[in-house]
Amino acid sequence: MSMAGNLRKVTGLDRVGGLRKVARLARRRPRVDLSHPARSPLGSAVVNCVAYENGTRVPGGRDLVETVEQVSKADDGFVWLGLHEPTELEFAGIAELFDLHPLAVEDAVDAHQRPKLERYGETLFAVLKTVCYVDHTELTATSEVVNTGEIMVFVGHHFVITVRHGRHGSLGPLREELEADPQQLAKGPAAVLHAIADHVVDDYLNVTDSVQADIDQVETDVFAENGARADPGRIYQLKRELLELKRAVAPLSHPLMDLATRPIRVVDPEIQAYFRDVSDHLLRATEQIAAFDELLNSILQAHLAQVSVAQNEDMRKITAWAALIAVPTMVCGVYGMNFKRMPELHWRLGYPLTLGVIATACFVLYRGFKRNGWL
């Protein structure tokens, strides 16, 4: 069903309060971009609803249905509707208005999706994983390093719907940057999809740079003088967090490649060149993550080798001290036996001579162990 047909159909939603409730929310705050982090109470699922014509923002004041009616009559206009963690009820009217596929709607509401790109008729549905670096004063075995969220994007000829999950990944600043470049925004909804993908991939690179600082710190601690005493739990924690980052980054390569190379109706060929640039940046992030994983494996193996060497050194020290203690133990044990006829038993100098022999033997053993590095 076309968007115009849906406009006539959704006018009956006033009675159930579905779409008109969304429209009232959009009309109530026509000029406030709640997606901006500085003003983001997120009192409802609707973050913002803005219409653009020829790359220029159309003044607000209309409800959602009127806005869609306006841009559907213009060849160079589209609506950008932003939502944050909508419920199924909140999204029902919007899905009917824009004729969104039920499977895509289910994915957008439930979240926890793998990065992907799907086409439903004239609508493109993209899922992107957002990531952010969690600041911490000291890396421990339980520190959270990477936090992930999701952005779902519906792209049609005259609309872009963004559904964000998570407390990070705000699109408010991105919207402001696009509005400052009307020439780029005039290229249509595909330009918004490119900007979102570029923004998400740039965050990947920023996070990998921050993770590298943690890896460098762990590497420095492991190869320090007392590196064998370093906590291996930090290495495992970094590997777990790196795995979560890899799950967000790696699957996005195929969707970006499709956007950059395969013909898609809602994506202008001029925009595909921009997607190739984003794909190159994603490849860089993927290679960095793979290199970090290999480096952490090497650091872990080096740490285990250091622990093994330290244990061998401890065993040698214990053995050396046990040998030193064995000499007086043996001599005293012999003279402690209750025999009547013992060598030098009744000699006046027997006691100091025995002590001298014990001390000499212990000194010789100590010098030998010290020279060989056992002590």
Structure description:
With 375 residues, the chain is an alpha+beta fold. It has a domain at 310-371: Methane Monooxygenase Hydroxylase, Chain G, domain 1. The chain is 56% helix and 14% strand. The protein has helices at residues 3-10, 18-28, 64-72, 88-97, 102-110, 172-179, 182-185, 189-222, 232-249, 253-261, 269-335, 350-371; strands at 46-53, 56-57, 77-84, 116-120, 123-133, 146-155, 159-165. Strands 2-1-3-7-6-5-4 form a 7-stranded mixed sheet, sandwiched between helices. α2 (18-28) crosses α4 (88-97) and α10 (253-261) packs antiparallel against α11 (269-335). The longest helix is centred in the C-terminal third of the chain and has 67 residues, at 269-335. It is rod-shaped and about 125 Å long. The N and C termini lie far apart (85 Å). The model is unreliable at 7-43 (pLDDT under 50).
Please state the CA-atom Rg, rounded to the nearest Å.
35 Å
Return the string of H and E elements. Answer: HHEEHEHHEEEEHHHHHHH
Largest sheet: 7 strands, mixed
Distance between the termini: 85 Å
By CATH, the architecture of one domain is named Up-down Bundle
With strands numbered from the N-terminus, the spatial order across the biggest sheet is 2-1-3-7-6-5-4
**Continuous helix count:** 12
Determine the strand fraction and express it as a percent band: 5-15%
Q: What would CATH call the class of one domain?
A: Mainly Alpha
